[in-house]
């Protein structure tokens, strides 16, 4: 089952399916101090040096690796990794306002993660640690208006946790998926690729 947004149960901060678009629970989980969503990125934030780890694309990638398409494809993958780098920075701070997210995301990707950031703050939580990504460029359409790219990922959040903002005590739900398939759709505006939509498979692992 592919899911884009997170449903918040009235009167509870617990997760109904996952934590932000990334930390998933395997089933319904409640408990004081967990947040339903998370936020996204910024342009002037200090860049984490090892936030995400990209696995090399398989040799059977359907997108050419050379020429103009190769350059654009590399640019889209880099933008995706940059998005994750900045999310780690923003979501790890209790004083972040999420304004920087506009530099890396647009549309539903921006809206969903900005709401997640607010919910984290309301629950007095931050994210600690780092996720690991393995992006693979699956499609690239430079003739679309705007140009569009699709990236498949196996997101590993086993080392990325929600924690009390003051004490840094881990406050993960009792059950959550630590690895799951995800898909990002990027659109290019001017010379910049932005994440426009981010979905994940909530019923399977990878």
Automatic annotation (TrEMBL):
Entry keyword set: Signal
Region feature Disordered, mapped onto this chain: 35-70
Signal peptide (UniProt feature, chain positions): 1-31
Segments of skewed composition (Low complexity): 46-58
Protein name: Secreted protein
């Amino acid at each position: 089952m592919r899911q884009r947004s997170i449903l918040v149960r009235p009167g509870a901060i617990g997760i109904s399916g996952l934590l932000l678009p990334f930390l998933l629970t395997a089933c319904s989980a409640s408990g004081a101090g967990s947040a339903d969503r998370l936020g996204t990125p910024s342009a002037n934030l200090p860049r984490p040096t090892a936030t995400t780890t990209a696995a090399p694309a398989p040799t059977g990638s359907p997108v050419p690796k050379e020429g103009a398409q190769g350059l654009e494809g590399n640019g889209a993958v880099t933008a995706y990794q940059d998005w994750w780098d900045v999310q780690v920075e923003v979501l790890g701070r209790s004083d972040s306002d999420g304004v920087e997210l506009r530099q890396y995301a647009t549309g539903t990707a921006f809206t969903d993660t900005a709401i997640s950031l607010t919910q984290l703050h309301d629950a007095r939580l931050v994210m600690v640690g780092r996720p690991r990504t393995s992006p693979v460029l699956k499609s690239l359409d430079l003739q679309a208006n705007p140009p569009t790219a699709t990236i498949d990922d196996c997101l590993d959040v086993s080392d990325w946790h929600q924690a009390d903002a003051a004490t840094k005590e881990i406050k993960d739900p009792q059950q959550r998926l630590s690895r799951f398939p995800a898909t990002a759709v990027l659109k290019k505006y001017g010379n910049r690729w932005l994440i426009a939509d981010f979905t994940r498979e909530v019923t399977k692992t990878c």
